[in-house]
Amino acid sequence: MALVTTKKMFEMAYKNGYAIGAFNVNNMEITQGIVKAVAETKSPLILQISRGARSYASMSYLKAIIDVAVEENPDIPIVMHLDHGDTFETCKQCVDDGFTSVMIDGSHHDFEDNIKLTKQVVEYAHDHGVVVEAELGQLGGIEEDVVGLSHDEVMDHLTDPDQAVEFIERTGVDSLAIACGTSHGAYKFKVAPTLAFDVIENIAAKVPNYPLVMHGSSSVPKEFKDLINKYGGDMPDAMGVPEEALTKASKLAVCKINIDTDLRMALTAKIRQVYAETPAEFDPRKYLGPGREAIYEMVKHKLDVLGCAGKAAECL
Ligand code: G3H
Ligand code: 13P
Ligand code: ZN
Predict the structure, then answer these.
(1) CATH label of the domain that carries residue 171
(2) How many domains does the chain have?
(3) For residue 18, how far is its CA from the centre of ligand 1 (angstroms)?
(4) Which tens digit of pLDDT belongs to each residue from 212-255?
(5) What atom of ligand 2 comes closest to residue 185's alpha carbon?
(6) Range of the domain at 14
(7) Between the CA of residue 40 and those of 19, 74, 75, 202, what are the distances in Å?
(8) 83 catalytic per annotation
């Protein structure tokens, strides 16, 4: 089957209390690891591509890799999504390139400008059968190489539920990424992780059946952190979102959960391990292969955490 939009996925995820895993892809090995996990568990999938991924791998290579994944897995619904589009032009280009979902991230603009920009993207995307995600409130951490707010600052920039209602009504956007205490990258919290579940619950009470998106949802698995630090890496204070919090959000109105950092850590941990344990190795297949396998194992586990394992058929 061809690429799909998120429409049916979000409808089923909301109704049945789970979230779809949205995983960032930058190359063939990352994509293969993710796709192997969803194929084996029969799970729906959102593959997301950032502007950085577009310029690193080129859109034609990434699209060709994803086309193979779609062709080889006709029973798995797969969405190709633009992660953190920043301008109308980028979103338009992605719609024209065959994406089935785009994100316009106007969260750094003021409320009115965010609405104006999001509306413009929604009009173009909907005319072409493409769905749109927007963002309201501000996340922290590193995004496209820009260092954002600290966790304390993040907790001061949570999404305002009343603004969310107005934003959704005025833009007609299909899903909304909210700020509820998460950040991008591997350093989300300095002490105990805290998330504002009341933001999710309040929005859900005001806009029933509306799909919310949680960015910055990597858990920073201890296994990978320890391997990275053991084999010459330097990430001692890395801390992510506890998996129980992801499961809790999935059962609420959160229908899409974004994960990139955990993929990077899985790949990096295995590459470091091979380099350290077999210093004479110089065949890329001997270190990218274990990295790809670690991604597969990690994603398979994550699909259980999000509750979407085995849900491919109902999302078709
Ligand atoms: O939102 C951030 C994602 O992890 C994508 O990161 O822009 O470095 O590809 P990137
Ligand atoms: P992480 O950095 O927590 O993996 O978040 C990824 C993300 O939100 C991509 O949009
Ligand atoms: Zn994000």
Answers:
(1) 3.20.20.70
(2) 1
(3) 24
(4) 999 999 999 999 999 999 999 999 999 999 999 999 999 999 99
(5) 2
(6) 7-226+240-268+295-315
(7) 18, 13, 11, 36
(8) yes
